[in-house]
Amino acid sequence: MDKQTIETLLNKKLEELNLFLVELTISADHTITVAADGMDNISVGQCTEIARFLRGELGEAADNYEMTVSSPGLDRPFV
Questions:
Q1: Dist. CA 59–CA 40, nearest whole Å
Q2: Which of 27, 37, 45, 60 has its CA 20 to 30 A from that of 70?
Q3: Do 57 and 51 touch, CB atoms closer than 8 A?
């Protein structure tokens, strides 16, 4: 799975939702982790929408990956 491709897809959707990408990781154990946020925070519904969008765009390739979309949380430093 190409990180740049995923990042490009995500940025397109995040811009639509007035959000921004904080972090994207793809681990060796086939886990895609997306941390996104916005000036007005991010809702659970938006996280779900992003995950569904990404799965739809990646198609069958996404079947081999576990995916997590969330806010970065208060315990993470602002970058």
A1: 30
A2: 60
A3: no
Q: In terms of Cα–Cα distance, which of 48, 9, 6, 46 is closest to 26?
A: 6
- pLDDT reading at 79 higher than 90: no
Q: For the whole model, what pTM was predicted?
A: 0.87
Fill in the amino acid letter for 48: T
Give the max Cα distance, the chain: 34
Q: Are 22 and 79 in contact (CB under 8 A)?
A: yes
In the DSSP assignment, the letter for residue 69 is E
Angle between helices 3-16 and 44-58 (to 10 degrees): 140
